[in-house]
C-alpha cells in the first residue's frame, strides 16, 4: 500500500513541477504570465504520467541490465520512446476531439503529423536523464520521511482535486468545441461571451487561436486581443484617475 502512496506522491510532485516548467518557459517566451496546461490548476498530469513511466521503466531496466552505463543508455532511449509516444497519443486524441492541433511541430525537422518531433524527443531524453540522476533521488528522500497517514491524506486530497478539475476542464473543453463548431447558430454576443469565458485554453495553447480565423465577428484571436486591449485601456484610465 505504501508503494502505491509513494507513486501517487511522485505523480503529484512531477505534475506540479511539469506545470512550473511549462509556465516559466511560456511566460518567458510571451513576456507575460501564462498558465500552461489543460487543467485550470497548477498541475500538468501528462508530466506526472511521463515521470512515472520513466521511473518504473528505470527500475525494470536496472534489474535486467547489470552494467550501469548500458542500463543508463537503455533507460534514456526507452524514456524517449515512451514519453514521445505519450505526447503523440495525447496530441492525436485532442485533435480528433477538437479537429485542431493544440500544439503543432510541423515547422520542426523530423516531425510526425506535427504531434512530435526529434527536437523535443531529444529534450525529453535530457529531462529523463536529469530526472533519474538528479531529481528523483532527492524526491525519494523527501517522500520517504512523510508519515504514511499524511501521505494517504495528501493522496486523497490530490486525487479528489485532479478528478474535479479534470471533469470541469473536460466539460469546458467540450463546451468550447460545441461553440467553435456551431458558431453560425450563435449570436455574435453569445459567441463573444463564450470565447472570453474559455480564453484560458487559447492562452495556454496559442495554436487554438487559428480556429475560425478570418471569419468576420468570429475570429477568436481578434476577440481576445480586443478584450485585452479594453482591459489595458480601463486599467490605464483608473491609474490616471488616482
From TrEMBL:
The keyword Transmembrane helix applies. The chain crosses the membrane at residues 7-25, 37-56, 68-94, 115-136, 142-164. Pfam families: ABC_trans_CmpB. It comes from the Bacteria. Keywords: Membrane, Transmembrane, Transmembrane helix. This is Putative membrane protein. It comes from Ruminiclostridium sufflavum DSM 19573.
Amino acid at each position: 500500500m505504501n508503494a502505491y502512496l509513494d507513486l501517487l506522491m511522485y505523480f503529484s510532485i512531477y505534475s506540479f513541477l511539469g506545470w512550473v516548467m511549462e509556465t516559466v518557459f511560456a511566460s518567458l517566451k510571451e513576456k507575460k504570465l501564462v498558465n500552461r496546461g489543460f487543467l485550470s490548476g497548477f498541475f500538468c498530469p501528462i508530466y506526472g504520467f511521463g515521470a512515472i513511466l520513466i521511473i518504473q521503466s528505470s527500475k525494470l531496466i536496472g534489474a535486467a541490465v547489470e552494467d550501469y552505463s548500458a542500463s543508463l543508455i537503455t533507460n534514456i532511449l526507452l524514456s524517449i520512446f515512451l514519453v514521445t509516444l505519450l505526447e503523440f497519443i495525447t496530441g492525436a486524441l485532442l485533435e480528433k476531439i477538437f479537429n485542431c492541433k493544440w500544439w503543432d511541430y510541423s515547422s520542426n525537422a523530423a516531425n510526425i503529423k506535427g504531434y512530435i518531433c526529434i527536437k523535443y524527443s531529444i529534450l525529453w531524453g535530457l529531462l529523463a536523464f536529469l530526472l533519474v540522476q538528479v531529481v528523483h533521488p532527492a524526491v525519494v528522500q523527501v517522500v520517504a520521511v512523510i508519515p504514511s497517514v499524511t501521505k494517504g491524506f495528501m493522496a486523497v486530497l490530490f486525487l479528489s482535486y485532479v478528478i474535479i478539475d479534470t471533469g470541469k476542464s473536460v466539460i469546458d473543453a467540450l463546451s468550447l468545441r460545441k461553440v467553435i463548431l456551431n458558431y453560425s447558430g450563435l449570436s455574435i454576443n453569445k459567441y463573444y461571451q463564450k470565447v472570453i469565458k474559455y480564453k484560458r485554453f487559447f492562452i495556454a495553447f496559442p495554436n487554438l487561436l487559428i480556429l475560425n480565423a478570418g471569419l468576420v465577428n468570429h475570429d477568436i484571436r481578434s476577440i481576445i486581443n480586443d478584450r485585452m486591449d479594453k482591459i489595458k485601456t480601463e486599467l490605464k484610465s483608473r491609474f490616471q484617475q488616482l
